[in-house]
Write a structure and sequence with these properties.
The protein is an alpha+beta fold and about 425 residues long. Among the domains are: about 220 residues, no CATH class; about 30 residues. The chain has seven helices and twelve strands. The strands form four sheets. It has a five-stranded mixed sheet. A three-stranded antiparallel sheet has the order 9-3-10. Helix 1 packs antiparallel against helix 2. It is elongated and about 130 Å long.
Length: about 425
């Protein structure tokens, strides 16, 4: 990326128009039970098998597009109107005591859509049954509030139940369909929540105690300077295009001791959201009820969110490396047979194509583009056109008269700065 330059030679910094892609990672852990007869050799071992699917959601920005038509206004010849705009992002406040007004803008469609997509990827229930002796079930609880969490994008989920090779493949297929559906839903809901209202201010009268005043909030004045033709102003919302890619990056196999599982690193689970948050700017340092890291750490330890050394059992022994390797090979061979993995352990091309997708979407921006259209219909009579023509001819004659007067003044000795040089004769 190019560096910005703020030296004295250039008044404005040089900005690179290239925009980076935004990436979210989603991990799903499945308890796996092999169907191979070879796996029965390890029946006396407390073997636990986990298969983790790692998906990546990438959103790359593109160019700007002309969006939906927001508002139209037709002005008759000589008409003047004042317009105001309002949406969920902006808030206009007027303080009548000080006669001060301000306009606040907050949030963005990009973060709104990303938060919805992140929440929806963990807000589902998946059930799959096969004809084998194992029942494949999964359940994930999530939260679907529309708030923006700084660290709430992406994450992982632990699927309950036991999955075989067919159930694992079916889960990946269902998850891919779920992601495509939620991708379209989040784009539509973002457009719905980003509605813009443009209105005309018709009167100056208002209540002095009102905090919302459309006349003071109106920021544009539109006028039709024509005499015989009407003008229609068309207000379009500016959209921004994005390219979406959802891909299966890796399938990881982990074999562990089911009685001593302390090797997995998982994020702290989300706490239930009630939709109410505390702004840091509204909490004073002298407040006794403010956030306390020490007290929160104690609470988390009591809830079991931190590792407790008492959970480690020194008498239990980890699985032998030979057992781990053999079980890993058994699981890998079964996943290779169903087309999920290559022999080297990487995701196969067919799996990446089947369990991933690429699409495009457009999200609205706060910008509005205004276009003007002159009506072809003439509303003036011939006498009006003749009067306008004579008025233009009169102005042209006045300009010619002024030009002639300026030429005569230049030749006048009275208006010269210096007299003409005289030639002496002998």
């Amino acid at each position: 990326m190019k560096n910005t330059s703020t030296d004295q030679k250039g008044c404005c910094p040089t900005l690179d128009p290239k925009q980076l892609c935004e990436v979210m990672h989603f991990n799903y852990r499945l308890n796996y039970r092999p169907e191979s007869e070879t796996f029965r050799e390890f029946a006396n071992f407390p073997v636990g098998i986990e298969v983790k699917f790692s998906f990546t959601y990438k959103r790359c920005p593109g160019g700007l597009l002309q969006g939906d038509l927001v508002y139209t206004n037709t002005l008759l010849p000589g008409e003047i109107v004042r317009l105001f705009t309002s949406d969920r992002r902006t808030t206009f406040t007027l303080d009548t005591s000080t006669a001060a007004a301000n306009r606040n803008v907050q949030s963005s469609e990009e973060s709104f859509q990303a938060q919805q997509m992140s929440d929806s990827m963990f807000d589902f229930t998946s059930k799959d049954s096969q004809n084998s002796s194992y029942t494949n079930k999964a359940h994930v609880d999530g939260h679907g509030d529309a708030g923006v969490d700084i660290l709430g994008f992406g994450g992982e989920a632990n699927m309950s139940g036991n999955f075989n090779s067919s159930g694992t493949s079916s889960f990946a297929n269902e998850l891919n369909q779920h992601a495509q559906s939620k991708q379209n839903e989040t784009a539509m809901s973002t457009r719905k929540a980003s509605s813009v209202s443009v209105g005309e201010v018709q009167t100056r009268a208002h209540t002095e105690t009102s905090s919302e005043d459309h006349y003071e909030s109106s920021s544009r004045e539109f006028k039709n300077p024509n005499h015989c033709h009407a003008i229609t102003f068309l207000f379009y919302q500016i959209d921004k295009s994005y390219t979406i890619t959802f891909s299966l990056d890796a399938i990881t196999i982990r074999v562990y001791n089911s009685q001593l599982d302390n090797a997995r690193i998982s994020p702290t689970p989300f706490t239930p959201s009630d939709g109410i948050g505390i702004l840091s700017t509204h909490v004073l340092a002298t407040d006794a009820q403010k956030f306390s890291p020490a007290a929160d750490a104690t609470t988390n330890a009591a809830r079991g969110l931190f590792i407790n050394p008492a959970f480690f059992n020194q008498e239990q022994q980890p699985l032998p490396q030979a057992v781990i390797q053999k079980v890993t090979d058994i699981v890998k061979n079964e996943l290779v047979q169903v087309g999920l993995l290559n022999k080297d352990g990487s995701v196969s091309d067919s799996a990446q194509k089947q369990y991933g997708f690429s699409s495009s979407m457009a999200l609205p921006t706060p910008g509005i583009m205004v276009k003007g259209c002159i009506d072809d219909c003439d509303i003036c009579e011939d006498d009006v056109h003749q009067a306008l023509k004579l008025d233009l001819e009169n102005k042209q004659l006045q300009n010619q008269l002024l030009k002639r007067q300026i030429d005569l003044l230049d030749k006048s000795q009275e208006y010269r700065c210096c007299p003409e040089a005289t030639v002496e004769t002998e």
